[in-house]
Amino acid sequence: MKITILMLVFLLTGCLGDRIPWDIAEVEQSDGQVCVYSSETDENAVFERMKIQKTGESNEFIVNFTEKIYARNSCLPLMGYAFIANNEYNVSFSVIDTQNGSREVFAATFIAK
Known about the structure:
This protein is mainly beta. The chain has one domain (21-111): Immunoglobulin-like. The protein is 11% helix and 41% strand. It contains one helix and seven strands. Pfam families: DUF7480. InterPro entries: DUF7480, T6SS_periplasmic_put.
């Protein structure tokens, strides 16, 4: 009986991944170019991972950054991803502080122009 109750509690609370606190990323678009960034990152923050998903599709474009690319007021490196005009996209990325190891996650939803 206790195991059944415990299982129900886990099922009702959802996945732990759903509890990640997201901050809002900023998006600028000009001449078909997209710049996703956050002006709230620390100066020691580097891009760690990104995910791009076209709304309504299950495929995801995921990149784990291996080199240090500083994130402070820098556009997220899109690694050649091509946005198609008039489609909605969800973009998320994480940064990690090289000094203290803290991690932040940012996300934005936008329609490509």
